[in-house]
Every structure is written in C-alpha cells, then in structure tokens.
C-alpha cells in the first residue's frame, strides 16, 4: 500500500507542477497582450501632450509684441524627440516616373533621418484654426515624419500661407483618437479656416472645394506653382472612404478672403 500511495502522490505532484507551468504561461501571455494593447495609447497620449505643449509655447510667442520686435523675420522653434512616439503606419510617399530617381530620393531621406540628433528642432510656420471642427494645431515648416507626429506640416514644394501661390498643409488622420485632421471630412465649401503666421498676421481663408483624389493626381494639387492667387490646400488620408483605395487623399481647397 505504501508503494501505491507514493506513486499516486508523485503523479499528483507532477500534475500540479504542470498546471502551475500552464498558469504562469497564461499569465505571461495575458500580461504581454495587455502591454501590447497599451503601447499605442501611451504613444498617442505622449504625442498629444507634446503637441499641446508646443501649441501653447508657439501661441505665447505669436503676440503683437513679437510682431513689432521681430517683424517678418520672426522665427519660432520647438524641440521634440526623434524617436519614441511613432504614428502607426507612418511612411513617406514617393512620386515620379523614374524608379532610380525615386530610390535615390528614398535613400536621401533615410540618410537624413538616420543622422538626426536625439532631439529635433522644428520651426513653426504658424497656427491653423478651424473652429467648426475644434481644430487648433501648430504648423511646422516641414512635412517630415517627425513633424507630422506633433502637429501639421507645410509641404516643402509649396509656399507659406499668405504668399502668392498654393500653400499645402499636410496632416495625419488619427482615427483611433479622432485627432489631427480626422474631422477634416466635416469641413464643407463656404466654411472658415484661419491661419496665424509666426509674425502675428491673421489670415482668413474660405473653403472653395472639397475633393478626394488618387495618388497619381495628388501632385497636380499640392505644389506652390499651380495658381497665381493666394490659395491654401489642406491634405489628409482618405483610404477606405466612400470606396476609395490605397493612396487616396482628401483635399480642402481654400482662397484667402481677408488679412488682419
């Protein structure tokens, strides 16, 4: 009987040990899953916090005093981290007919980003406001991946808002947080768009047209030389909207109606 009891005890201990291993494994998997679920919300919170702080800092510098003291030479900068707050799916779009030129440009951009310091200095072009959708964001003078994490970016081949020609401002459509240009789809023809320049000028634009274009048409709408008038074009993703496929972009095209 003693031998039989020892055998049963050993079997129970073995089964109990196996169960403990399974419980530990299950706990690790659950914890890993929770951490994965929290990564993007934490990144999003950090991005929004930096963007909000940047907006406050920029707005405090864009005053009548800065306009009088710095005039047209006003420069406002803000320092942001190079890494750590990436937007899910962020990438560059490269356009052109020559594959070698595209590859060379891609390599150039990658090399530039690789050589950036851990803290990146962004220069502010101004603040974009659309009261209808409760939007107020800093607009940086570049449309790099880093710039678009913390506000909106001026397309480098366009002009500054208020200058003769087309000024294009790019922004992410952050669906999971409803931020950046997510609510741009609510803007219609006739709506008001305000832009405050770095030197304190307030520009009033009126929306003329809202349209969705594919990637092949995009360049025809965003460069600075497509018009002789003072135009503002806001651009964000439209993938999946109304059946539009990959690379579709929503454009909000405006004309300047007043400067004050």
In short:
The protein is of the alpha+beta class and 260 residues long.
Descriptive tags:
single chain; about 260 residues; alpha+beta; Sortase, Chain: A; eight-stranded mixed β-barrel; two-stranded antiparallel ribbon; 5 helices; about 35% helix; about 30% strand; globular
Structure description:
It is a single chain. By secondary structure, the protein is of the alpha+beta class. The protein has helices at 2-61, 64-70, 99-114, 145-149, 215-222; strands at 76-81, 119-130, 135-140, 152-154, 165-170, 173-174, 179-180, 192-197, 202-213, 230-237, 249-259. It has a single domain (2-259), classed as Sortase (Sortase, Chain: A, Beta Barrel), CATH 2.40.260. The protein contains five helices and eleven strands; from the N terminus they run ααβαββαββββββαββ. The strands form two sheets. Strands 2-3-4-5-10-11-9-8 form an eight-stranded mixed beta barrel. The protein has a two-stranded antiparallel sheet with strand order 6-7. Strand 8 (192-197) and strand 9 form a beta hairpin.
Number of strands: 11
Could you give a short account of the major beta sheet? 8 strands, mixed, barrel
Q: What percentage of residues falls in helices of 4 or more residues?
A: 25-40%
Portion of residues in beta strands equals 25-35%
- And the CATH topology? Sortase, Chain: A
Q: Which residues sit in consecutive blocks of at least 5 with pLDDT less than 50?
A: none
Structural class of the secondary structure composition?
alpha+beta
Fourth-tier CATH superfamily name: Sortase
The count of helical stretches stands at 5
**What is the molecular shape?**
globular
């Amino acid at each position: 009987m003693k031998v039989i009891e020892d055998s049963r005890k050993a079997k129970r201990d073995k089964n109990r040990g196996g169960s403990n291993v399974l419980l530990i494994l299950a706990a690790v998997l659950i914890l890993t899953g929770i951490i994965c679920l929290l990564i993007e919300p934490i990144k999003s919170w950090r991005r929004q916090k930096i963007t909000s702080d940047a907006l406050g800092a920029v707005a405090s510098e864009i005053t009548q005093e800065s306009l009088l003291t710095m005039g047209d030479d006003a420069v406002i900068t803000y320092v942001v981290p190079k890494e750590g707050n990436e937007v899910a799916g962020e990438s560059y779009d490269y356009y052109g007919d020559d594959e070698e030129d595209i590859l060379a440009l891609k390599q150039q951009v990658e090399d530039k980003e690789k050589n950036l310091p851990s803290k990146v200095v962004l220069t502010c072009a101004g603040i974009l406001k659309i009261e209808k959708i409760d939007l107020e964001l800093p607009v940086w003078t570049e449309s790099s991946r880093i710039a678009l994490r913390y506000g909106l970016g001026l397309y480098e081949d366009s002009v500054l808002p208020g200058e003769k020609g087309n000024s294009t401002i790019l922004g992410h459509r952050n669906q999971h947080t409803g931020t950046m240009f997510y609510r741009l789809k609510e803007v219609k023809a006739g709506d008001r768009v305000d832009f405050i320049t770095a030197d304190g000028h307030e520009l009033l634009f009126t929306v003329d047209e809202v349209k969705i274009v594919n990637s092949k048409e995009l360049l025809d709408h965003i460069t600075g030389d497509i018009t002789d008038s003072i135009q503002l074009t806001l651009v964000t993703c439209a993938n999946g909207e109304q059946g539009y496929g990959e690379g579709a972009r929503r454009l909000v095209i405006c004309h300047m109606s007043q400067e004050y």
